[in-house]
Amino acid sequence: MSVLKGVNSPSIQTPPSPTTKDMAVSGEPDKLVRKSSTKRTPNDFIFGKVIGEGSYSTVYLSKELSTGKEFAIKVLEKRHIIRERKQQYVMRERDVFNKIGAHPFFIQMYYTFQDPDRLYFVLTYARRGELLDYLHKLSSFDENCTRFYSAELVVAIEYLHSLGIIHRDLKPENILLNDEMHIQITDFGSAKMIKTDVDNTDKPETGRKKSFVGTAQYVSPEILTSKDPHCSTDLWALGCIIYQLLSGLPPFRGGHEYQIFQKITKLEYEFPEGFGDTARDLVEKLLVLEPSERLGCEEKGGMKILKNHEFYKGIQWDTLHEQKPPELTPYLPSNSLNSQLWSKNRPGLDDARIGEIIADTVLTDDERKIRLEEQIKSNEYHRFVEGNLILKQGLLDKRKGLFARRRMFLMTEGPHLYYVDPANKVLKGQVPWSKELHPEVKTFKIFFIHTPNRTYYLEDHTGHAQDWCKAIEDVWQRYYGDKDKHY
Ligand code: ATP
Predict the structure, then answer these.
(1) Is 343 contained in some domain?
(2) Residue 234 is a catalytic residue
(3) Do 113 and 254 share a domain, yes or no?
(4) Ligand 1 centroid vs 124 CA: distance in angstroms?
(5) 26/140 same-domain check
(6) 113, 155: one domain
(7) Is the CB of 272 inside a 6 Å radius of any atom of ligand 1?
(8) Residue 267 maps to a domain
(9) Total number of domains constituting the chain
(10) Is 130 in the pocket of ligand 1 (CB under 6 A)?
(11) Helix 232-247 and helix 277-286: axis angle, to 10°?
(12) Which atom of ligand 1 is closest in space to residue 59's alpha carbon?
């Protein structure tokens, strides 16, 4: 039978440590859940929509019947855990949640219970979802937002380490956000307990020592080279996250994990143009191969030194969780060009639009047929547009944070807006059309396309951003505008 100790009160500050008996790993996941004095069962909750799915779990938005309080309930299938031999991960996650207790920057586990088939972890519901989604939507954050969110992360890491816990899988997916847009860290399946408290300390990872823990882009060199676990591993991840928030991409990238690992162990990464000097200095002091040389580690004077870095000037560390987070704002290096450069007399003559096709969005059947025949005969991009008639095309720089890639954009009937890598002639994706899509001119060169999940940040070097926006609006009108009108 399972062993229980007090994880059943929502007001627990520091839940008791599990017993040795409780830690025993067996093939029975019943041992992973402790009984509770006021025992909860699945019938105490209404299970709502699925909020997310992990490799071994489904997370439901739930409401407790007696209090009306909302929770995220993580449901794990026992059979699946046993089949995949993940008992240890599940137990570790439970133990770390217990040890963390209630802290503003962490998801809290309120109750655990089980039925014959499943384990249930009742967790704080982080209503605003993952930080990663906001990063995808905006491409990157400005320095002010990056400073605030990474400062919250610093405080969270400091707390974790004070408990002897190394997270080992910090990344924007594992940073959730509460109603007030403060961070709530989760996912402790890869965590490691290093304090000497017998019951809570992880056994040495003998057989698994060389196995890779974490996520390729954020994994530290010492994890790859199987050195002893070091708190500094989370500081490496912090460096990767700061770099990513500001620039839009993590520092170590590659087509496959091996390539990424190679770059990590050689410290092979670059700063894109526009990356601020102070932020760069901080990242360089965190992305250091030797764990004991990283800013913030005990050997270098601890987190106090990290908090005193110039990048964090002005941060009121003790009250971060009570402060109003800055509104998330993208870092747009060309923003300074904005209003004063925008004028009706845009530069360049219409000849500058060589290579572009600007078509009326509404054509007669005969016109369409003629244009399509012409397109099939002479447009090398025809093969990317699934037989659709191209209404407008042109080269644009598609920005993701501080990185820009030149793409051939092809707006077609349908509507579709494809983009192709012009050098390698590979279709890279499509801007998803919907009624919510809308363009916004920023300067004569720069415009945005807003979609529900992402804002595309585009730059037309020929200076005809307004033409693009006009054409997109025309297509929008045709497909989503007033249907009674005839265009
Ligand atoms: P894996 O197990 O594959 O590493 P995971 O750790 O993301 O995946 P879960 O912890 O089961 O798996 O979470 C699945 C998804 O549910 C997450 O991606 C997250 O978006 C969402 N989620 C998890 N916990 C919460 C929570 N407390 N509040 C809101 N959303 C959550």
Answers:
(1) no
(2) no
(3) no
(4) 12
(5) no
(6) no
(7) no
(8) yes
(9) 3
(10) yes
(11) 150
(12) 16
Reduced to 3 states (helix: H, G, I; strand: E, B; else coil), residue 242 is helix
pLDDT of residue 357: 47
pLDDT tens-digit map of 357-406: 444 556 788 888 999 999 999 999 999 999 999 999 999 999 988 999 99
Chain centroid to Cα 181, Å, comes to 14
Q: Whose CA is nearest to atom 16 of ligand 1?
A: 52
**Burial of 62 per CB tally in 10 Å (0-12, 13-18, 19+):** buried
Q: Do 382 and 257 fall within a single domain?
A: no
Its domain, for residue 407, covers 365-480
Residue ending a domain, among 124, 139, 171, is 124
DSSP state of 165: E
Distance CA 393, CA 356 (A): 5
- Ligand 1 atom closest to Cα of residue 127: 29
Instruction: Quote the pTM value.
Output: 0.81
**Which residue among 106, 124, 142 closes a domain?**
124
Same domain, 169 and 273: yes
CA pair distance 175, 107, nearest whole angstrom: 9
Is 385 within a domain?
yes
Residue-wise pLDDT for 126-175, tens only, equals: 999 999 999 999 989 999 999 999 999 999 999 999 999 999 999 999 99
Which residues is 403 bridged to in the sheet? 400
**Cβ-based neighbours of 220, under 8 Å, separated by 6 or more:** 214, 232, 233, 236, 237, 264, 291
Are 220 and 263 found together in one domain? yes
The domain spanning residue 401 has which CATH number? 2.30.29.30
Query: What is the distance between the alpha carbons of residues 484 and 249, in angstroms, rounded to a whole number?
Result: 44
pLDDT tens for each residue of 410-458? 999 999 999 999 999 999 999 999 999 999 998 889 999 999 999 999 9
Atom of ligand 1 nearest to the CA of 124: 27
Q: How far apart are CA 402 and CA 249, in angstroms?
A: 9
Q: Same structural domain for residues 317 and 408?
A: no
- Which pairs from 479-482 meet CB under 8 Å and 24+ separation? 479/415, 479/433, 480/434, 480/435
DSSP state string for 186-221: ---TT-EE-SS-TTTSPPP-TTTTTS--S-GGG--H
Any idea what the CATH number is for the domain that residue 86 is in? 3.30.200.20
